């Protein structure tokens, strides 16, 4: 019934709903939010602000909150992490409760219990897996996903033991050229003095200190105009002291020249930043010991093991592509030329996007899930049911926000805007009497199915206090715990 898997909002819903006044108005809602990243917090904030009296219970699989704002955003972007101050404010609302260390949908009972014990459930659990290439050699120890590397330097417990063998590698390839790929490149290339006083984990900092990585190659399957990174982020890499961008191959520049008069301002600026990179190199004053380059029109084909060191690769084979594009507004099609090239690379990082998985219990609740795109199909944030003809009708009372709504793209600002719209969709359904507004037990009804006692917001503040104290003694904003058991010990 819905032609598109995810319809985005118009922003005008809230103005419309103010006119409704129904019997539902006096019944306080109990809402469960799954996930404490930006989507969870911004949805909660809007609900608490616009529907006074609402109880929002946030369930988080980790003992600590904030999702990718804590475990994704790079340590040298502390200003981006300031959104955590806003989230902490949200947690002060009397109607807010946090239940950490509770993975909803690890077993069927937890999700079903949320549905039964709340008037409404918001899925905001992000995308905690990564996409695979499906090519030979992908499981070799020298191939890392950007997601695990990022989690490692940011202290995500799941990846705390990753320790990539950077001390043995000089050449690295990164597959994909989104902003995550640039974060990975920057961490491999950056001046360590710059990140020493950030919240990077001490363990990963020590490994980066021993790194021998000298050359980083960022490889995209399409052309320069299709680059997934943004201008601000590529400029930051171009300006990185201590490393130089190799000049772009003429063929990449030639391929977009015919389109220059047609380019929008943002894309024009991006091409200018890249073309001026050699000048930036000349302006750098300190020693330049590392280099990086952008390659285009190459698709990964195979990873080869290193003959002597099982932890490393010897190289990565790519197939060359050509781009068929009639004009700037038509989509570019990639065609293989049949040529292949092997880039020397002791390590490879796959940075081709994150992916959400369905939760156990979704089938029982007849919730659709798009496995290919890794997202919950929805209509303006309303979860839709299953149907023989594709997606079914909206399941009023179930909503989805953030990366698990749209797929793994978007920055915190876009996640915020869209989460507000999802909250307003929920509020609209409330005023239109589409929700079951009968009394629900909320957390008290869910408690019996939980396997471990949850971590409360006050518990998290205890963990945070110790992280901040440890950080202060090291001249850092915080020194993160990277082990769940250690965090739980503090709480106990
Ligand atoms: P998430 O932030 O992933 O939050 C989901 C939460 O749900 C997590 O806390 C997770 O632990 C929890 N969860 C998962 N499964 C369950 C479960 N079963 N039960 C309970 N809880 C669960 N944006 C910017 O604006 N600036 C940046 O510099 C920036 N850097 C980024 C760097 C990286 C490496 C990445 C990957 C993204 C970056 N982004 C940045 C984008 C930004 O992080 C996302 O837009 C945003 O975090 C998406 O929010 P979310 O709440 O949908 O998902
Ligand atoms: P992304 O921007 O979607 O980039 C994914 C990259 O992987 C693209 O280059 C894509 O190429 C490539 N790719 C996908 N499948 C591939 C395959 N099978 N083979 C080869 N290449 C493949 O994703 P991301 O880098 O993970 O970033 C996710 C979101 O987080 C983005 O919105 C990003 O802006 C945001 N983010 C922001 C910041 C920041 O603001 N500083 C930092 C990090 C992340 P195609 O384009 O050809 O598909």
UniProtKB/TrEMBL annotation:
GO terms for molecular function: oxidoreductase activity. Its cofactor is FAD. It comes from the Eukaryota. It is an enzyme of class 1 (oxidoreductase). Keywords: FAD, Flavoprotein, Mitochondrion, NADP, Oxidoreductase. GO terms for cellular component: mitochondrion. It catalyses: 2 reduced [adrenodoxin] + NADP(+) + H(+) = 2 oxidized [adrenodoxin] + NADPH. InterPro entries: FAD/NAD-bd_sf, FAD/NAD-binding_dom, Ferredox_Rdtase, Ferredox_Rdtase_adrenod. FAD binds at residues 39, 60, 68, 104, 403, 410-412. Residues 30-239 form the FAD/NAD(P)-binding domain. Gene3D superfamilies: FAD/NAD(P)-binding domain, NAD(P)-binding Rossmann-like Domain. NADP(+) binds at residues 177-180, 221-222, 233, 410. Its EC number is 1.18.1.6. Pfam families: Pyr_redox_2 (PF07992). Belongs to the ferredoxin--NADP reductase type 1 family. PANTHER family: GLUTAMATE SYNTHASE 1 [NADH], CHLOROPLASTIC-LIKE. This is NADPH:adrenodoxin oxidoreductase, mitochondrial. It comes from Trichomonascus ciferrii.
């Amino acid at each position: 019934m819905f032609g598109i898997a995810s319809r985005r909002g118009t922003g005008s819903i809230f103005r419309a709903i103010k006119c409704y006044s129904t019997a539902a108005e006096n019944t306080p809602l109990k809402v469960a939010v799954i996930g404490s990243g930006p989507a969870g917090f911004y949805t909660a904030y809007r609900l608490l602000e616009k529907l006074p009296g609402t109880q929002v219970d946030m369930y988080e699989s980790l003992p600590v909150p904030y999702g990718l704002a804590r475990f994704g955003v790079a340590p040298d972007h502390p200003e981006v992490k300031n959104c955590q101050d806003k989230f902490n404010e949200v947690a002060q609302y009397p109607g807010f409760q946090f239940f950490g260390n509770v993975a909803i949908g690890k077993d069927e009972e937890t999700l079903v219990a949320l549905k039964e014990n709340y008037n409404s459930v918001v899925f905001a659990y992000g995308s905690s897996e990564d996409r695979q290439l499906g090519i030979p050699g992908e499981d070799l120890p020298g191939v890392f996903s950007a997601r695990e590397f990022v989690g490692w330097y940011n202290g995500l417990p799941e990846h705390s033991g990753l320790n990539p063998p950077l001390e043995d590698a000089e050449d690295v390839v990164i597959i994909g050229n989104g902003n995550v790929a640039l974060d990975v490149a920057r961490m491999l290339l950056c001046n360590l003095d710059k990140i020493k006083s950030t919240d990077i984990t001490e363990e990963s900092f020590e490994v980066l200190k021993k790194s021998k990585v000298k050359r980083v190659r960022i490889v995209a399957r399409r052309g320069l105009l299709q680059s997934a990174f943004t201008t601000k982020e590529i400029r930051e890499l171009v300006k990185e002291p201590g490393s130089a961008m190799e000049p772009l191959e003429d063929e990449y520049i030639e391929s977009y020249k015919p389109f220059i008069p047609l380019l929008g301002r943002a894309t024009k600026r991006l091409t200018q930043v890249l073309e001026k990179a050699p000048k930036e190199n000349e302006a750098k004053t300190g020693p330049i010991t590392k280099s990086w380059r952008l390659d285009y029109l190459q698709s990964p084909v195979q990873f080869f093991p290193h003959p002597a060191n099982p932890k490393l690769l010897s190289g990565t084979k790519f197939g060359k592509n050509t781009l068929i594009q009639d004009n700037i507004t038509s989509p570019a099609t990639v065609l293989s030329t049949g040529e292949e090239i092997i880039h020397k690379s002791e390590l490879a990082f796959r940075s081709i996007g994150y992916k959400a998985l369905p939760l156990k219990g979704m089938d029982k609740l007849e919730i659709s899930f798009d496995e290919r795109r890794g997202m919950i199909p929805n209509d303006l944030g309303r979860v839709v049911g299953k149907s023989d003809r594709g997606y079914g009708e909206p399941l009023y009372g179930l909503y989805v926000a953030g990366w698990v709504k749209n797929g793994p793209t978007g920055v915190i600002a876009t996640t915020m805007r869209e989460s507000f719209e999802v909250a307003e969709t929920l509020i609209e359904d409330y005023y239109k009497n589409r929700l079951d507004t009968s009394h629900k037990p909320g957390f008290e009804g869910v408690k019996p199915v939980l396997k471990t006692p949850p971590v409360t917001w006050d518990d998290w503040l205890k963990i945070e206090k110790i992280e901040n104290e440890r950080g202060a003694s090291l001249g850092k904003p915080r020194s993160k715990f990277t082990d769940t058991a250690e965090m739980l010990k503090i709480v106990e």
